């Protein structure tokens, strides 16, 4: 670890982002700096500063928007919206972490993440499939009933796993970045009694970026396959991903949903899809990625834009509201930070956030939680989907290995 990163994590409230403005950056809060947390079950936004906590609202998007209006264009907020952050949508509040954390630090520095010393096997261990458990098969069957009834076109079915580890969160994050580098890697630490959250993300997916000229862009991922063991196998895996009808149909449905979401806040005729189903390759997987872009209307602020897209269509399915109702009934547990969005928002109207996938979370109790899953369509096979959900989580678990 570098000295500056060590200095930052000694503060109870800090953050490190790969996708910082101008490059990776670390930021931390002095005691009188402000942070906001949200409890979806209570519908309470709490403002933390100078050791005091005060409930200041019921909608974290609205409270954060008010903070931006009353602050300076130079202000920078860092944090996350968990899956249940929008109070007008059906989602269970987290029972372990705040459903949103946003921090306004007074200390910000450019700082690449240092490499971690981690035990590495000579080659990645072979992934061993296991039988699909009954609880997953039952959830999958219920989703298929909804799909065949026409209640949804695609449902992102997920579940939460956990693993005990004594590894400190910052060290676990450094190992995760070394094992699974990603463009939206991020570390959030909010070590405040009653509102503790440690979020360790190695996400490859852009939720939304809003530029100074009003360009609003999302890059949904739908379609994932493991990298091949040899160059030939790797090339074949990428080619299969690009042509597989199931993956292409999943991606197209989410692109349509994102086009609809952007059209609610963008100039008429400005929404476009400059890239449709491009294969992007990362350390462990190939992904099918599309780009959806538009020009934000002048009367819509940055929080209005982020709210309109939330949660990411790739993490719900389509249509969004009805599919979230299905998810709430079928999954039976909160998603927490997983499936939300993490990054930075500026007082000058810019923002850049990633989707919270490939992410570990903890409240410091010695248990790390992770969400995993995938998009289900009528073409999906239950055993394939469960196996895919497991290998998506494999590298997260490797970061916690002894």
UniProtKB/TrEMBL annotation:
Domain of life: Bacteria
Domain spans labelled Chorismate-utilising enzyme C-terminal: 134-392
Source species taxonomy: Bacteria, Bacillati, Actinomycetota, Actinomycetes, Micrococcales
Species: Microbacterium album
Name of the protein: Chorismate-utilising enzyme C-terminal domain-containing protein
Stretches of the chain forming a coiled coil according to its record: none
SUPFAM superfamilies: ADC synthase (SSF56322)
Gene3D superfamilies for the chain: Anthranilate synthase (3.60.120.10)
Any single biological process term in GO: 4-aminobenzoate biosynthetic process
GO CC terms of this entry: cytoplasm
InterPro entries the UniProt entry points to: ADC_synthase (IPR005801), Anth_synth_I-like (IPR019999), Chorismate_C (IPR015890)
Annotated GO MF terms: 4-amino-4-deoxychorismate synthase activity
Annotated region described as Disordered, given as residue ranges: 214-233
